[in-house]
Amino acid sequence: VVIIWGIAWPVQKVILESLSPLWMVALRSIISAAVLLPLMVILERLRLPNRCDIPILLSISLLHMVGFATLTALGLELAPAGRSVVLGYTVSLWVIPCAVLFLGEQFTARRAFGVSLGMTGLLVLFNPASFDWSDNDAVLGNFLILGGAILWAANILHLRGHHWRSTPFDLLLWETLLAGAIILPVTLLIDGGPQADWNGELIGLLLFSGVCAGALAFWAMAAAARSLPAVTTALGLLG
């Protein structure tokens, strides 16, 4: 997940030179669903989600696939990818204390050292002293990405606290379909049709975004959060 989404940030920055943020998110959901549907049929895994898993399906679709993805895409349009990606991974700032408070997870001295080391790295990489606070676009962009990180943190906590009936893979198609059904009408209403110079590079980047940064990474993130403590998941992202 860390490797794929680390690569995805500059990839998205390039895509945003041709497409609006909303269209980028919408197309990622559409491509993910288009890839997953035949795969689920071939694997004979296409089935309606268990009613008990509807809350986590909604959480992943609304908080992460739509909320986090849209806010970070809007933020990336305004802020440089290098600095903004650091804020995107402040998710651990919110997950770790909430996992201790609400999920009863242990915050050991070893984990505290890991958090302190990671936060020091984030501070060095972001370097607030060198940030141009007079650049309103950059400030707004980074705040949008920070808001996306908070939504992502809430989703990680829900992933860990949910009592699963289906597997993360079995729910993935329905999550991408729901995300697409939400974001596509909004995109058409606000932006109209996609205004882009369609070429091989753009199509290739969109395929990477939809298949790898979309379907594959969302499945891996849900599977990790399901099987690992929320604190450990956040520390892995922070690392």
SSE arrangement:
Layout: H1 2-15, H2 21-42, H3 54-78, H4 81-88, H5 91-102, H6 109-126, H7 136-161, H8 168-191, H9 200-227, H10 230-238
Task: Write structural notes for this entry.
The mean pLDDT is 86. The protein is built from ten helices and no strands. Helix content is 78%, strand content 0%. It has helices spanning 2-15, 21-42, 54-78, 81-88, 91-102, 109-126, 136-161, 168-191, 200-227, 230-238. It starts with a helix and ends with a helix. The protein is mostly helical.
Give a count of the beta strands, DSSP E runs of length 2 or more: 0
Average pLDDT score: 86
The major beta sheet can be summarized as:
none
Fraction of residues in β-strands: under 5%
Descriptive keywords:
239 residues, mainly alpha
Compact overview of the structure:
The chain is mainly alpha-helical and 239 residues long. The chain is 78% helix and 0% strand.
